[in-house]
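Reproducibility note. Readers wishing to regenerate the assembly model reported in the main text can use the exact inputs given here. Chain order matters: entities are listed in the order in which they were concatenated for prediction.
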Amino acid sequence: MARFNAVDVVLWGLRIGVVAVVVVGTIGTLLHNRYTAAQWFDFVVFGLTIGSIYAQIALGYTMVYGVLRLINFAHGDIVMTGAFAGYFVATPLDRSGFLNSHPVLGMSAILAVAIVTSTSIAVLTERIAYRPFRRVVGLAPLICAIGVSFFLEQTFRGMFGSAVKSYPSPDWQRATFQLLGFNVPRVDVLVIGLALVFMAGLYLIVQRTRMGTAMRAVAEDGEAAALMGIDVNKVVVFTFVLGGTMAGIAGVFYAFVYKQVYFFMGFTPGIKAFGAAVLGGIGNIPGAMLGGFFLGMVESVGPTLFLDGIGIPAPYQLRDLIAFTLLIMVLIFRPQGLLGERMARKRA
Amino acid sequence: MRRAILIGLAFGAGAVHLAVVGVLLMLHQRMIIVDTLTLGQAVLLLIAGGAGAMAGRPLTGLIAGATAAVPIAVLTAVMSVVPLQSIFIALSPDLFGMLTLGQGLAAGIGILIGGGAIAGMLGAGWRISPFVVRRAIGPGAIAVLIAGVFQELIQLMLQQYEGPVGEFRDFLYTWEGLSPQGGITIFIIVAIASEVLGSILRRRAARIAAHDHRRERMVWAGFALLALVLLPAVAGSYVGQVLMLVGLYILMGMGLNLEVGLAGLLDLGFVAFFAVGAYTTALLTADSSHALAHLSYWEAMPIAVALSIMVGVLFGLPVLGVRGDYLAVATMGLGEIVRVIVQSDFAAPLLGGAQGILQIPKPRLGNFVLGNPVSLFYLTLVASAVAAFVAWRLENSRLGRAWMALRDDEDVAQALGINLVRSKLLAYGLGAAFAGLAGSIFATMLTSVYPSSFQLLISINVLALIIVGGMGSLPGVVLGSIALIGLPELLREFGEYRYLFYGAVLIVMMRLRPEGLWPSDVRQRELHAADETLALDAGADAVPAQTR
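Running the prediction on these inputs yields the following structure tokens for the assembly.
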């Protein structure tokens, strides 16, 4: 047992180290007091904005995992397809001035096209690449999903080129609001507000509709659900439709926030959102939303709060480091997530 | 009939994908036979032929082939009406010209569908034709393909010779590529050779016992390996460069093979070990301000490998308890963390930040500098040979068997007294050693290291090649590296589409041949046993796997 103790020592060291960095960094930053209240407010608003996007992406991971026990590695790329589809609507609308004169109609058109595209691609990948692996255990499904991810990325690269395209940014999005005496960018308010509306809608669909009930039944126990007369294939397709819809919306929002699209853009938010889904307890829908917001917050506030205080130069560069560290810590120490995993069966 | 149309449409969708993504036009720029046939046209014909072969009989094949041409004909028609190039950059007038053979829309569509129908019929005919015919035509066509596609390299190689060889070259090739007469000659020669050799081999194969086949295969593999070893010396530095890259990936592939193939630990952060090897070598040998020491390459390499092992173990420690797909994501996160740190200003004083470390000297042996790619290739070769020996001995050792037990069922393995912690950490450490060695050679090859060389894509490359070759199989690693690293490198313009191809390969391999092209014996037995039980418990509702 001596060896196991050695491993435990390392793991405890890791925990203590991370906590120490967080505590020392926070105290240091707060003592230095180099940032104004407005700056902190900006960090928080940005954290909520990006967090609401992560939450939407995380929903796709969590629902698919709940139903299929599969990490849909290509989900981040589904987000990218939505962003691209939105781009090809948003650009002409912006050029003709329509997006500025009719913001509601314009945004609806962009979101509609993005949702249709990402949903069809999500359903197509399920049919072609995931369905044959329904009964296969082991690494094959995950490897296939990695293949799908690369295939989608490179297809979009081939179709639309590898250059970064700048997303239109209409005037009404760039304007700011006054809130509690701070300036809040309108695009952030729009993204957070719409994301909350869409997520509430999704939650209602899953909780209240017949199809949502069927989906929860399959997530609970697929075989029993099938015996009760639930068409599992239909449920799976429905799950991918819901996930694809959320991904399409998230893609458009992500592109509006960062003002650009390119073929590899889905990868990093995809991985992070997976982390958020695990953080909230994979298979758990409110958990995924919470995890997304939490991750966005940590990522936005963290570099300044934790790292600036211990004297690390340019902490903003290490934003992804914080997100990935959080991801790994969750996978190692609390794979069942904060709210607990809604799965009886142990993962193998 | 309906099935033929469905097959045709599926293949046609594939063809449209290739066209929209830009692969088709890229392949069109490669001639197989000058002014007669391009690689792009050959691929279109192959798609129609494949649809025909899947459909079965010549008549249904004809229908499937013609249907396969329909989607692309529709695309052509749409292209002539709507200027799509402003959105889809690949749908250029050049592509239109290629698809219609420059004959205009109506005639072009006729050619496409007619060609598809003929190719489909031939494809179906191929399936029902006798073995003797296939044995002649198959290798002949492949030989023409190779001779045409790699004409530049072959011409360059043949250029060194005068006399009859030179005259023969002039007969086969024009300045631009393979001439029609050359194509026909090569086809006939190879077809006859295949016929003669094939019948001899078959007669022999009938005589020798079944268990000798394995030895036979080994002998052939040995010959292929010998050719590979001698090739750079004959073919010059470009081929040397490519083969050296292949060698590095073989090294890494063998390392990841220990982790994924034997121990079942899917590690997507593998590139971190490669980076450790490269950066250690750079820091210890470079002639720059970042250098910590000025050792010779031979002193730095063992240190680099040792450090990689340490990092591997450190990497493995926290994720010991993480299983399956969570492990894949966790290791990927670790790999990304390493890259983010190396790239940041935080670590820049030590590691050079985004600018990297320059001026790494080439290794020397006495007064001889291993400066050119060919000599570095031989260094890689020696390293790979040593590593292959180690990997081979490991595979059949107590530890190797422990790994395989671990891969198949962790809980049972532990119950049988296998020390999980020790076996897992050894898998990470030894796998990392191989990658560190590859990284060390990589650093002296480039004479500089940058963080951008150590992307996640490298891990995916290595994963793809061991999957194509066959997980847990050493010859598979070699085969996979040649197919996935060497071939795209030789077809230079292909580089851009390499990852598209990798993605497709991962999906197709997982669906059709999860054991890889050259599977290890154990693995093959397992997978096929698994197939049988799967088919049994899937029962009546089992849908036959659909191939695309």
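We highlight two features of this model. The longest strand of chain A covers residues 176-179. Confidence is low (pLDDT under 50) at residues 343-348 of chain A.
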